[in-house]
Specification:
alpha/beta, 14 helices, 8 strands, 53% helix
Length: 293
C-alpha cells in the first residue's frame, strides 16, 4: 500500500518504522524535519507538508501531540484534508479530546472524505516491537480495508464501533485506568515501605500472583525502580489525558470522582517540578505524604 504518516514523535516514529518494515511504500512528515532523516535513508519519501503526504497515499496516519497540532495538521493550510485523495482514508491515532474528535469526524464528512480513529495502547517499546493494542472505530468496510496496515502496529485489533468517536473515548477511558492503577500501586508500595517491607517484594508478590497484566508488571517495575527520568510519557501528558476524560464525563453526565483524585495527584507532581518526568513519578507524592524520603 501507499501510506502516509504525519507525526514522528515517541510513538509515531516506531509506528511508521513498522509500516516501512512491512514493505509498504511510505511518505512521512514531521514538523521538526530532522526526525524524518532516518526514513529518507531507508527509502521512504519525506513530504514537505501534510497535504503533500496525503496526496501520495491511499492511507494517511496521523499521530500528533494534542488537539491543536492535530487540528492544524488536518484542516490547516497545507493540511491532510487539503491533499487527501477521493478514495483515501485519514486514520487518526492521536489521543485527543472528544470535541476535537468530533471536529475531525464532521470536518472530513463535510468534505466527503473517509475518516477513522485508530487509537493505540502501549508505550514506545511496544510500538517498536509491533506489540501495541489497536482500538479502531469507523465504517466496517473501511476497517476491513485498513486491517493489514493496522496489524503492523500489533496483532490485536479491537473494533469499538461505527462512530470514530467511540475509539477516542475508549482510549481516554483505558488511559484513566492506567493512571488510577498507578495511584493504587503507589499507595500500596508506600504503606508497605512504611512498615519496613521493600516495595520490590510487594511487586514480586503482586506480579507473581493475581496482578499479572502489563499495566502492573511494566508500570510497577518503573515505580519500584524509581525510573522517572526516561519518560515514555510525561506527567503533563497524563494530566492532559485525565482532563479530557473528565470533560467526557461532563459531556455524558457521568460523575467521575476517582478521576478528580488522579488529576489532583498529577497536578501535585507538576507543582513539585516533575512535569517532564514519567507519570509514574506521582508515586513520590504518595511517599512524601507518608513521610518517606
Amino acid at each position: 500500500m501507499k501510506i502516509g504518516f504525519v507525526g514522528l514523535g515517541a510513538m509515531g516514529h516506531p509506528m511508521a518504522r513498522r509500516l516501512l518494515a512491512a514493505g509498504h511504500q511510505l511518505c512521512v512528515y514531521n514538523r521538526t524535519a530532522a526526525k524524518a532523516a532516518d526514513f529518507a535513508a531507508l527509502g521512504a519519501t519525506v513530504g514537505e507538508t501534510p497535504a503533500m503526504v496525503a496526496h501520495e497515499a491511499d492511507i494517511v496516519f496521523s499521530m500528533l501531540l494534542d488537539d491543536a497540532t492535530t487540528e492544524q495538521a488536518t484542516f490547516g493550510k497545507n493540511g491532510i484534508a487539503e491533499g487527501l485523495l477521493p478514495n483515501a482514508v485519514h486514520v487518526c491515532c492521536s489521543t485527543i479530546s472528544l470535541e476535537q474528535a468530533r471536529r475531525l469526524r464532521d470536518g472530513h464528512a463535510e468534505r466527503g472524505q473517509t475518516y477513522v480513529s485508530a487509537n493505540v495502547l502501549g508505550r514506545p517499546p511496544a510500538a517498536e516491537a509491533g506489540a501495541l493494542f489497536v482500538m479502531a472505530a469507523g465504517k466496517s468496510a473501511v476497517l476491513d480495508y485498513l486491517e493489514p496496515a493496522l496489524q503492523c502496529f500489533g496483532p490485536h485489533i479491537f473494533r469499538v464501533g461505527d462512530d470514530p468517536l467511540q475509539a477516542n473515548l475508549a482510549k481516554l477511558s483505558l488511559n484513566f485506568m492506567i493512571y488510577s492503577t498507578i495511584e493504587q500501586m503507589a499507595e500500596v508500595f508506600a504503606l508497605n515501605e512504611k512498615a519496613g517491607t521493600d516495595p520490590r517484594k510487594i511487586f514480586e508478590i503482586m506480579t507473581g500472583s493475581f496482578y499479572t497484566a502489563p499495566v502492573h508488571k511494566n508500570y510497577g517495575k518503573l515505580m519500584v525502580d524509581h525510573a522517572y527520568d526516561t519518560p515514555g510519557a510525561p506527567v503533563t501528558l497524563g494530566l492532559k489525558d485525565v482532563g479530557m476524560f473528565m470533560d467526557a464525563g461532563g459531556d455524558y453526565g457521568v460523575p467521575l470522582p476517582y478521576a478528580a483524585i488522579v488529576r489532583d495527584r498529577l497536578l501535585s507532581a507538576v507543582s513539585a517540578g516533575d512535569a517532564d518526568r514519567d507519570f509514574v513519578v506521582l508515586q513520590e507524592r504518595v511517599r512524601q505524604e507518608s513521610g518517606l524520603t
